[in-house]
TrEMBL record:
It comes from Coprinopsis marcescibilis. It is a multi-pass membrane protein. Residues 209-218 have a biased composition (Low complexity). This is UPF0187-domain-containing protein. It holds the Pfam family Bestrophin_2. Its main location: membrane. PANTHER family: UPF0187 PROTEIN YNEE, VOLTAGE-DEPENDENT ANION CHANNEL-FORMING PROTEIN YNEE. Keywords: Cell membrane, Ion transport, Membrane, Transmembrane, Transmembrane helix, Transport. InterPro entries: YneE/VCCN1/2-like (IPR044669). The chain crosses the membrane at residues 25-45, 51-70, 346-367. Residues 187-208 have a biased composition (Basic and acidic residues). The keyword Transport applies. It comes from the Eukaryota.
Length: 494
């Protein structure tokens, strides 16, 4: 989530409640409410009194409140750290894009390691490298979500031109690590296409021979008025491997709405497995070679920087800035990986949850004598409050998945894409072409003559009030008068 309320933004459905923790805690709330109901009815309607002394209620409640507060605060700190890291990626890619697009010269000539090259070829070269910059946050997004490989509709078109083999010759044994994620058997690929990574049929088109081929996007895709397809802005590159969707959140089912059914599903599967042991054997799969795609993209960017320095196309100060920014990208990737792969210790989470359960279990026994029938709603509210905070901490602990309360990584990637394209739309004009024009009034508000009129005066510039000698004295006087006018006009009297 970035700014929109996931519960009320867009068309409302019952699934919107998944943005809250109600679906996760209501079975426990109902259980403790049932316990409170039993204790209250037995105490009020029979001669048996289930009330116990409440001496430990205040002490244990205070301790649990502090521990749960620490748990939630630590989880929210990780959430905020994740957001800061993505801000670093956005800022760094923007800085690198500006340096490479503006400061790397397009006019090339034979000089040392530099080779003669047309302006068009140089522009293609720089734009391709900036496409790699655009691919970096996309690769980070898939990496954090545990989606290995490069064959995704929003990633593959940006990096498909990179080398795939160590010796440049197609050989499976010489395949570079980035492309090794496709090293799975045909059965697994088929399972992915029909299962979790199933692609819409409109993404598959036919070639001239009638055989299906995979494309990063299809020109024959169905178009709806409310259809959101940001991948349509990417290159249309053919792939010999089916491309997985750019966004593939897990599908919600009845078990998400009624968690208690998961227990019955587990029992039924156990029974069926015992009845037919051979039918539930796991399929043997070839080992999947995982690679760190974001890291490999930074290696290509570093290699390009080194080539620029060898060719003398990048000044030492700018080369230092580029190297520093690449270091920031790698450091940010490490921090994001730390947040994603370092949950709170299981012993801490289990002990905290068991302590809370025991506290809520004995709570109605301690307050039934004072609250009587109010014990039931009081216990329900206390369990809803405490269990809710505990579940919130667990949900936002890893903010990089598809939950409605997680960070909107797709929004960040698309925002970076827009910024990089805005940078490459800059034409690098000479200052003379846009400064000395009729629309520019550099000395306003004291002197509202345009730049063409001022340049025509040459060194005989005279301020409008004629209060100083022609030349720099008049220019300085105009600057002071501009400051005074701005200071007076922009200050508001309260």
């Amino acid at each position: 989530m970035v700014a929109n309320n996931p519960l009320f933004h867009g068309r409302w459905t019952a699934k919107r409640f998944q943005a809250t923790v109600i679906n996760d805690i209501y079975p426990e709330v109902l259980f403790f409410s049932a316990v409170a109901t039993m204790v209250t009815l037995v105490t009020q309607l029979t001669t048996t009194k289930l009330a116990i002394p409440s001496g430990l209620l205040t002490v244990l409640g205070t301790v649990l409140g502090l521990v749960i507060s620490f748990r939630t605060s630590s989880a929210y700190e990780r959430y905020q750290d994740g957001r800061k890291m993505w801000t670093n990626i956005s800022t760094t890619t923007r800085n690198l894009g500006q340096i490479l697009w503006i400061h790397v010269p397009s006019a090339r000539e034979d000089k040392g390691a530099q080779r003669a090259q047309t302006i068009l070829a140089s522009t293609i070269e720089k734009k391709s490298i900036i496409n790699l910059l655009q691919a970096f946050p996309v690769a980070v997004k898939h990496f954090l979500r545990g989606e290995q490989g490069v064959y995704y509709e929003d990633l593959y078109p940006l990096i498909s031109f990179l080398p795939r083999y160590a010796n440049g010759i197609p050989n499976r044994d010489d395949q570079l690590p980035m492309w090794h994620s496709r090293d799975v058997d045909a059965e697994e690929v088929g399972a992915e296409r029909s299962g979790r990574h199933e692609r819409d049929e409109t993404y598959v088109e036919k070639d001239n021979n009638g055989a299906s081929r995979s494309s990063s996007r299809s020109a024959g895709k169905k178009v709806r008025k409310d259809f959101f397809d940001p991948e349509a802005a990417l290159p249309d590159v053919e792939s010999d491997v089916p491309l997985r969707p750019a966004r593939n959140p897990p599908k919600s089912d009845i078990y998400d709405l009624i968690p208690l059914l998961r227990f019955f599903r587990f029992v039924i599967r156990r029974i069926l497995r015992r009845a037919n042991p051979g039918g539930y054997r796991r399929k043997q799969r070839l080992p999947l070679v995982e690679s760190n795609v974001p890291l490999e993209i930074t290696l290509f960017l570093s290699n390009y920087t080194a080539w620029l320095m060898r060719a003398g196309l990048l000044q030492p100060a700018l080369a230092t800035a580029v190297t520093a920014n690449l270091g920031v990208l790698q450091d940010t990737l490490s921090n994001l990986e730390r947040i994603s792969n370092t949950p709170l210790p299981f012993a801490y989470q289990a002990h905290l949850r068991m302590s809370l359960w025991l506290y809520l279990l004995f709570l109605p026994f301690q307050i039934v004598e004072s609250f009587k029938y109010i014990t039931i709603p009081g216990t329900a509210f206390a369990s809803f409050l405490l269990l809710g905070f505990l579940e919130i901490g667990q949900e936002i602990e890893n903010p990089f998945q598809y939950d409605l309360n997680d960070l909107d990584l797709d929004h960040f990637c698309l925002d970076i894409q827009r910024q990089l394209h805005e940078i490459t739309a800059h034409t690098n004009p000479d200052p003379v072409d846009f400064i000395f024009v009729a629309h520019n009034q550099p000395f306003a508000p004291a002197d509202k003559r345009n730049a063409q009129e001022l340049v025509a005066l040459g060194d005989n510039y005279v301020s409008p009030d004629n209060g100083a000698r022609p030349g720099m004295d008049s220019i300085r006087r105009t600057m002071v008068r501009s400051w005074k006018q701005v200071d007076i006009v922009t200050r508001k009297s309260y």
